[in-house]
Design a protein that fits this description.
By secondary structure, the protein is of the alpha+beta class. It has a domain of 61 residues: Ybab, Chain: A (2-Layer Sandwich), CATH 3.30.1310. The chain is built from two helices and three strands, in the order αβββα. Strand 1 and strand 2 form a beta hairpin. Helix 1 runs antiparallel to helix 2. The chain starts with a helix and ends in a 9-residue tail after the last helix. The mean pLDDT is 90.
Length: 102
């Protein structure tokens, strides 16, 4: 039989996790590459919002380099989203392993 207090704690934890996930989804995260030659912004839902390129600081004829820098900047932003999710959810679950939650 499940303890009613434990059930309340689990329900509160679930509500807190939903609230935190909603906050993260609405947040914007930024990544960069090449010393900020390339900057990207990504929503917490991992949707890319914008890519900024400092045209005067990059050789636009070197498409391979430009593509590589964009990939690095996007991955930088996505890692920041993942880190925020991990830290925020971890602060709620206090290290409890809750598979399938996020």
């Amino acid at each position: 039989m499940i303890n009613p207090q434990m059930m309340k704690k689990l329900q509160k934890m679930q509500e807190d996790m939903k609230r935190v996930q909603a906050e993260i989804n609405q947040s914007t995260f930024y990544g960069q590459a090449g010393g900020s030659i390339i900057k990207v912004s990504v929503k917490g839902t991992k949707e890319v919002l914008a890519v900024q390129i400092k045209r005067d600081e990059i050789d636009l004829n070197d498409i391979d380099m430009l593509q590589d820098l964009i990939v690095v900047a996007v991955n930088d932003a996505l890692r920041k989203v993942d880190k925020e999710i991990e830290e925020s959810i971890g602060s709620i679950t206090h290290g409890m392993n809750m598979p399938g939650m996020f």
